[in-house]
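Sanity check

After download, print the first record. It should look like this:
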Amino acid sequence: MAEKIVGIFDTEQEATRAIEGLQRQGFTNDEISVISRDRDDLKSISDDTGTMAPEGVATGAATGGVIGGVAGLLAGIGALAIPGIGPILAAGPIVATITGAAVGAGAGGLVGGLIGLGIPEDEAKDYENYVDQGKILVLVDENGRGRDIHRVFRDNRSLNASRYDSLYPDDPAAVRTTDYADRYPADDPRKPL
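Expected structure tokens:
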């Protein structure tokens, strides 16, 4: 299983620019996954980048982790109810993994799905917290192209870009900016965990 590189974005505009940057680097929509709490954010990202559009995503809660069952999984979009977070949306190859992990998984739905993708548990919990805060996650398989992904994420204000600096030390982008999580004062509620 390929290592995932995860970008965390404050706004749908930043996430959209990152996805467009990945597409310019030759990544296809089948290689890019997005997780968001906000249906409008995900729809806007999908519309702007040509990734799978969430038309007709079902609403309402369903026991066992999935909103609307199979009928809610249109055009590659998974609508999930994650205990403690509420409804989230996912697009791209991650949908099947998270949906499978979320069905009947209880509180570990999103974390379990991320762990199933090879993301360490502590990081998966952090990513769940980011989604809970309304951030947008963009996930891409590294597949030997981590430096390209890192550069695109950093250039588009990924809040966790510095997490990958040590993995890609020759990346000139790693030297020119700081982690965008530092742009908020410590007491600002928008500051990531």
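If your output differs, re-run the checksum step. Summary of this record's structure: Residues 7-136 form one domain.
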